[in-house]
Amino acid sequence: MNFSNKNILITGASSGIGYQLSKDLVREGANLALLARRKDVLDNLAEELKSFNTKIITTYCDVSSKESVKTAFDFVKKEFRNIDIAILNSGASYRMSIEEFDSKFIEEIFNVNTLGLVYCLDELIPGFIKKKEGYIVGISSLSDLRGFPRSAAYCSSKAAASIFLESIRIELKKYNVKVITVKPGFVRSPMTDKNEFQMPFLMNVEKASKIILKGMKKEKRIIQFPLPTVLGIKFLRLLPDKLFEYFANLPLPSKK
């Protein structure tokens, strides 16, 4: 995968991984379509990156709304003749104990993490199939392998996203459309800053972006990091349910 002169769409580009990927990809010579709810942040980012002399467009997009996604993608397709690579990065998280159970928050998380992904794919897949090329990069999470306490909505929404991406990867192969699933561990961002516990192997967003771009260049099916967290999650996945529940119930160390 080569990024130079490619038209790359990024959702959730106003913070975290999406924001950093935007900065790194423009240095690789990519043209960018930046989508997020905070368009003012996108506009400021585009202004900051204008010296690289690539085309950068910004537009408001709430991925939880099918109509908003269609409007945003129609704008991008009008400005760019085609989309070469789509990085579907928008994500939402809300930690909630069973005593605080409220389907409203769960619905919000699924609308962004799962249906938001689907709405974007609805706009991408027909065009990619028609031209028989394209790259779909979905940002999921290492939390997709087990159900962790207080994170039922996040874990299950990311599990659904990972399985969905795996399924379409198989079907799109015959059309020469590549699907890459990115599974980060803890990456420092406004979303993880809300966590009240010490996050093991917390990675800065600059390093995470470099790992993702390196994996994209190699066209890996799954990009997952950091290695200690990957190994830890795989170990937890293999544990019998009773033993996993015991470890999962142990109190997490609080932030100092």
Give the total of beta strands: 7
Number of individual domains: 1
CATH architectural group: 3-Layer(aba) Sandwich
Strand content: 5-15%
CATH topology: Rossmann fold
Task: Explain the overall architecture.
This protein has 256 residues and is α/β, with parallel strands linked by helices. The protein has a single domain (7-248), classed as 3-Layer(aba) Sandwich (Rossmann fold). Helices cover 46% and strands 15% of the residues. It has eight helices and seven strands, in the order E-H-E-H-E-H-E-H-E-H-E-H-E-H-H. Strands 3-2-1-4-5-6-7 form a seven-stranded parallel β-sheet, sandwiched between helices. The mean pLDDT is 95.
Task: Supply the key terms.
single chain, 8 helices, 46% helix, Rossmann fold
Topology readout:
Layout: E1 7-11, H1 16-27, E2 31-36, H2 39-48, E3 56-60, H3 66-79, E4 85-88, H4 103-131, E5 134-139, H5 152-172, E6 177-184, H6 205-217, E7 222-225, H7 227-238, H8 241-248
Helix pairs in contact: 1-6, 3-4, 4-5
Compact description:
By secondary structure, the protein is an alpha/beta fold.
